[in-house]
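quick one before i forget lol
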Amino acid sequence: MSSSHHDPRIGWIGAGRMGAAMAERLVSAGHDVSVFNRTRSKAEAVAGGAATVVDRPVDLADRDVVFTMVSASADFEQVVLGTDGLLSGEGPVPKILVDSSTVSAESSQVVRDAAAERGTTLLAAPVSGNPSVVAAGRLTLAVSGPRAAYEQVHSLLQILGRSATYVGEGETARLVKICHNVLLGVVTQSVAEITLLAQRGGTSREAFLAFLNDSVMGSTFTRYKTPALVNLDFTPTFTNPLLLKDIELGLDAGRRLGVPLPVAALAAQLVASAIGAGYDKEDFATLLLEQARRSGVELTPEDADVSDGLAGEDG
C-alpha cells in the first residue's frame, strides 16, 4: 500500500508469538503500527514498546491496512465482526484487511462478505514459518483475494518475509496452505524413516543429515529440523494434532475435488499413531520417535553442534 503521498498507517490484531514477530518487522522498517491483543501486556511488548497499543479492535478502524493473526476461526470473526470488533463502528473502516491466521475457508468467506459490505477488502494471507523463521526473514505467504488489493499491500508483505505469492481469488490461499502442510507431514515422516534406516545401518543421524542437507535433496526445511532430529529437542513449533488436522483437511479437499492422495492418507495414519503413543504436545518431529519404536531402535541425543540453517539470515 505504498503511496507517493504517505506511508500507510497499519493496525495489527493478535500479538502472540507469531503476530508479535511479524508486527515487529513492520515497526523495525519504520512503519506506524498500532496493536491490539486481548492480553494487553503482549501488545505493549511488541518491538520493545515501539508500537502504539489500543484497547479494542474497533480502535484500529481508521488505519489504512489492518493485519490479523489470531488463533482460530471464532477469534477471527470476533475481532472483526463481534462486539468492539474492527468493523463494528459507524465511522471509517480500513481499506484492506490482511488475515494471516489459520482459519477455515468458510469462516474467512463470512468475514470477506461482511467486510465488503462495509467497504473493506479482505486478503487471505496464510504463512509458512514460525517466530524463528520470521526473525530470520524467511517467512513466506500465500495470498488470495482481489489482485488490485494484493498489489497495494505487496510492499508491506515483502517486509514480513522473503516472499509473498499471489495464488488467486477468494479463499484459494487457504487451500494452498493446507497443501503445504500435507507435504509437511509427508516429508517429515519420510525423513524420519530414512534417518532411522541410515542410523540402523551404522551412521550417526548428524552425519546422515549433513550429507542430505548438502545434497540436491536437502532443503530449508530439512536443515531447519536437523537439530531436533539429531539432538532430540522437541520443543514445539507445530504439534502432531495440528498437523493431523491439516492433513485431514487436505484429504477432505482431495475427495471434494476428485484428487486421490494415497501417500497423504498413509501419513495421516502414521501421525495419528504418534498421537496415540502420547506425542501430542511436543513438536511433530517426534514422528522420529514413533518410527524408532516401530524399528526397535532406542534413540539418544547426539549432543552435536548442528545448525538450523537460519543463522546469518536477515533479522
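fyi The chain has two domains: 10-170, 175-295.
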